[in-house]
Amino acid sequence: MKKSKYLYLLIVPVYLVYFFIAERIVTEGDFISYIPLDDSIPFVEAFVIPYVLWYPLIFGVGIALLLTDDDGFKRYMLFVGISFFSILTLNIIFPNAQELRPDPLPRHNFFTEIIELIYKADTNTNVIPSMHVVGAIGATVAVFYSKSFNRWWRTGVMALSVLTTLSTVLIKQHSVLDVITALPYGAVVALICFKAKKNTTLFERSKNKVMKKIAIVGYGNLGRGVEAVVQKRKDMELVAVVTRRSPESVKTVTGVKAIAMSDIASLKGVVDAVIICGGSATDLPEMTPALARDFNVIDSFDTHAKIPEHFAKVDKASREGGNISMISVGWDPGMFSVNRLYASSILPDGKDYTFWGRGVSQGHSDAIRRIEGVIDARQYTVPIESAVERAKSGENPELTTREKHLRECWVVAEEGADLKRIENEIKNMPNYFADYDTTVNFITLEELYRDHKGLPHGGTVIRTGKTGFDSEHNHTIQYSLNLDSNPEFTASVIVAYTHAMLKMKDRGEVGCKTVFDVAPADLSVVSREEMLAHML
Questions:
Q1: What share of the chain is helix, strand, coil (3-state, %, to 5)?
Q2: Contact residues for 296 (Cβ-Cβ < 8 A; gap 6+)
Q3: 3-state secondary structure of 300
């Protein structure tokens, strides 16, 4: 389906010409479409409304797909072309008609006036199978196939399609026989047209892992960020948000259902991957190994000193369950880790430096919030500029952790809380603050929301090294990020690596992985040919 999508628009005028030709050719039917059930169906003129709405339904779905989903649009137009043209051809070869229209109409009102116009414009020939019903099937399948439609649009299209189908017999445009024949006819054409790669049909997509089903554990800033990213992808579908809160209290942006953590076992065999959006201080060390036994999981564990320990636990659990997992995915650890690996491999005679900020560290902020007496907190990681300049200079200075960064904390404490105790706990927290010069500022909740509402972050990885027989040439590799929203960017990284992880799983890999184990091509959704043509 590599042809321009606009060529598919030609199907519409060609079909309309063919339709009017068929209407002129077939003026009476050799076969009268009728079954006894038709006599029991009343004439309900109000159903002319959904009958007429079929036209904006068919065109509306097409226009929406044209604007948002090239592949979905092409498949939809292919469905329209194959089904509508073949129906007209069948009607020319085997002329048919129906004799169910009431004459005269039993009542005279607004609805019957519309029906009279329809009867005049559309003859009672060429009725089997019903093109209205076949078209409704195509529209419904198209919106479920495409990721461009949320569940409300899908529900609305399906409801209108059902009403349209009923309307064909209730305003006596069709016999029940026309509907009965249209249902399998439309289904067969849909199976032909709405096929995913590797010749899988729409209804086999989840079976063959084309549309990956995703669950999110935790619905904070990171969880909402993952929801936003998955919603825009065409290879993934979010099916549940798992929460330790009351599910009724969790209102997701996309309307996906929330379930209790105690019910997560119900997702086993249903979802392809679980993205765990918890904190590294206490959540992920417990959650990730526990869930890795039953699910393919991925997390953003960012306590650098404890990564080997966390990896070992998750790897053991994943292998016991025959699953794949990935830990410490984000921008650091994550993208910065990959850049450190590349840079040190390219310039082995050298030294690398990592600077974070200025920005809000979600993990460190979460660690502060878990201290008794703390209501909320923001922690800023601040690079020391003099250290950054020394690192860039190529002198390869030895910089301690304390010499590279400051940690700045803004804390809202409970009324009456021991502020001195809270400050000491923060400053002496191992793996988070103990190795840094840390300032702790106590403010009100109003001040926190007013002055520290955003979640910006960023950082730089610098590698300086030498080449030449006498190390006479100096080189600097620098990779930087400037992020408006730390959680949303982290979510984007996690979802991309979830895609790669599931590719690896499809190849039969199990156990725990990190960003070091992922081939770059596995991150992308584009074909190898596109990569070679446009990215290499």
A1: 50, 20, 30
A2: 272, 273, 274, 323, 324, 325, 501, 502, 505
A3: coil
| Alpha carbon distance 341, 71 (integer Å) | 37
Lowest average pLDDT, out of 69-73, 91-95, 248-252, 293-297, goes to 69-73
Pure H helices in 282-361: 283-292, 307-321, 335-346
* Average pLDDT value for the chain: 92
Confidence of residue 196 (pLDDT cuts 50, 70, 90): low
Instruction: Evaluate if residue 207 carries a pLDDT over 70.
Output: no
Cα–Cα distance between 519 and 345 in angstroms, integer?
A: 16
Higher pLDDT among residues 527 and 418, named by residue: 418
Bridge partners, residue 240, by sequence = 215
Nearest to 143 by CA among 86, 202, 84: 202
Mean pLDDT in residue range 40-58: 96
Tally of CA atoms within 13 A in the half-sphere of 249 that contains its CB: 6
Residues β-bridged to residue 481: 459
Tokens 């730089």 belong to which residue? 460
> Which one-letter DSSP state was computed for residue 331?
B
Provide, rounded to the nearest whole percent, the portion of the chain with pLDDT above 70: 96
Under a CB-based contact definition with an 8 Å cutoff, are residues 259 and 238 in contact?
Answer: no
Rg for the chain, CA atoms, rounded? 31
Q: Among residues 313, 278, 317, 316, which one has the least CA distance to residue 294? A: 317
- CB-CB contact of 101 with 124 (8 Å): yes
**Planar angle of CA 499, 524, 66, nearest 5 degrees:** 100
Mean local confidence (pLDDT), 225-232 = 96
Block residue for tokens 């999110």: 216
Task: Characterize 78-116 residue by residue with b for buried, 16 or more Cβ atoms within 10 angstroms of its Cβ, and e for exposed.
Answer: bbbbbbbbebbeebeeebbbbebeeeebeeeeebbebbe
379: alpha, beta or left, given left = phi > 0 and alpha = psi -120 to 50? beta
Q: For strand 31-32 and strand 96-97, is the pairing parallel, antiparallel, or unpaired?
A: parallel
| pLDDT(150) > 80 | no
How much is the average pLDDT of 81-107? 93
